[in-house]
Amino acid sequence: MKAPAAAGILALALILTACTSGADALAEQYRSGSGQNYISGDGAITVIAPESRSEPVTFGGELDSGGTFASGEYAGSVLVVNFWYAGCPPCRLEAHDLEEISQEYQDRDVVFVGINILDQAPTALAFSQEFGVTYPSIMDVNSGDVRLAFSGEVSPNAVPTTLVVDSQGRVATRISGLLSEPGILRGMIDDVLGEGL
Predict the structure, then answer these.
(1) DSSP state, residue 49
(2) Domains of the chain
(3) Over its length of 197 residues, how does the chain's per-residue pLDDT go in tens digits?
(4) Confidence (pTM)
(5) E strands present in the chain
């Protein structure tokens, strides 16, 4: 086996081991205030009034579980888009809350999708299994197409970043950094759902 291939396999094994251990050391370090050289968004919230929103965003790509995702197939639905990767401490902290909220809204025409910006599919799937995440993630590491589609006024400028996209495909809200209070995201989704009533 060539050295680069062996190094890649070792790195993947270390990541998977970190993802499957009982105690989540990365999340605990982040929670205790030890960033371990990780710089996150500050949790800033951006809310855009309907009349001030930019043009609709169209995006898609290959999913971690196989198949593809195309935002156009969900026209008329509210989309919650979360940018993440497995080794991101705040991503690990917020995974349970995002999954819980996705389950709460699954019958209300709200679709959750992750955008994995760094990992390959096996690592993303290991993360989903460990944290019980059931919604799919687009694997954006090779192309960066999804990040590019959302560049501009409310770009995902930190990891994690969570966007709520209205039923017309326009970004309505952004949380830049850790979802520290799940009720904030619930309120954002409710507000966007209420716009069509």
Answers:
(1) -
(2) 3-194 (3.40.30.10)
(3) 444 444 443 343 334 344 444 455 554 554 554 445 555 667 899 999 999 999 999 999 999 999 999 999 999 999 999 999 999 999 999 999 999 999 999 999 999 999 999 999 999 999 999 999 999 999 999 999 999 999 987 889 899 999 999 999 999 999 999 999 999 999 999 999 999 66
(4) 0.81
(5) 44-47, 60-62, 68-70, 78-84, 110-116, 137-139, 161-165, 171-176
